[in-house]
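FW: tagging you since you asked about this chain on Friday. Here's the raw sequence from the shared folder, copied in full. Didn't touch anything.
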Amino acid sequence: MTVRYHQRSKQIWPSYVCQNLSIQTAKPTCQTISGFGLDQAVSRLLVDMVTPITLGLALEVQQELESRRVEHDAMRRQEVEHARYESDLARRRYMQVDPDNRLVADSLEADWNEKLRAHEQARQRYEKLSDADAAGIDEKQRASIINLAKDFPRLWNDSRTPDRERKCMARLLITDVTLLKGTDITAQIRFNGGATHTLHLDLPKPAWQIRQTPSVVVAQVDRLLDEYTDTQVARRLNALGVRSGGGHAFSHAIVRNIRTRHHLQSRYDRLRSKGMLTLQEIAERLDVQPRTIKTWRRAGLLPAHCVGGRGEYLFEPPGAQSPVKYQYQRRLQAAARASKASSDRSDK
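HL: got it, structure written out here
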């Protein structure tokens, strides 16, 4: 599989694409897997695997293998001795043949050359494997490996560590990763030490699901709409530090979209269902002009509830304490006469 990189919100996201058949035969791409969640899962696995305990066990296995090195060396040396014996035997046969019998001599010479090559190959193989066995791990190197395991989580999770350095560390620890996309994503990870691990991950969600507002926030919006308008709900949510599914601060438009998408009643509809009256309706009930209703509302004579950002209000049905026609004007006139009389008495 090949890797592609995409930039989203100033962050690099990888994608793994199986496109060998697509390139060779122009067939559809076999599978494409988003690497964002996959890379995070592998990172957590690496941090969990590279610990002093696991490395200590690996070093114990290495020590056990080193203890068997002598036995393996004896077996390989025996192989070299056997090849040398076969070579010497072929040489003696060639030296004892009658030189005039060229057919037999040529056959024995070819056999001798073949045995010589086999002996040389066995000797080179023995030297190569012996050098590898000699490169064991001493106590100083063992302590360094254990200390590296303690520093690995810090280095891996440090935001200042470049991605290329993380790739280098991953290559040193992981041999390969096999991906299979079905009802979920199966990742079979093979480590350089021979250990294997299988991860099962959920399929990545589409972009619209990732940006979808959580149900908890939708329920919170529904509760706030009992007392606030869309704009006021947005302010309340922002004050609480709540963010939308896309990670943005709430606005009147976002609250309206949530309300529409989830079929939530608006503040206006909720108050109307409780019997609240519009400006025109309460004006007809009280037999006054709408501007009079506005004046009474501003004076606090009529209970009203804001239902929009442009000064829209709904009014509670009139009761025994509701003002009547000309009453507010009479009160103003009486207050004016009382104020004038008081001023006249003070002048005398």
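FW: The chain has a mean pLDDT of 80.
HL: agreed, and Residues 141 and 313 are 79 Å apart (CA to CA).
FW: great, closing this out.
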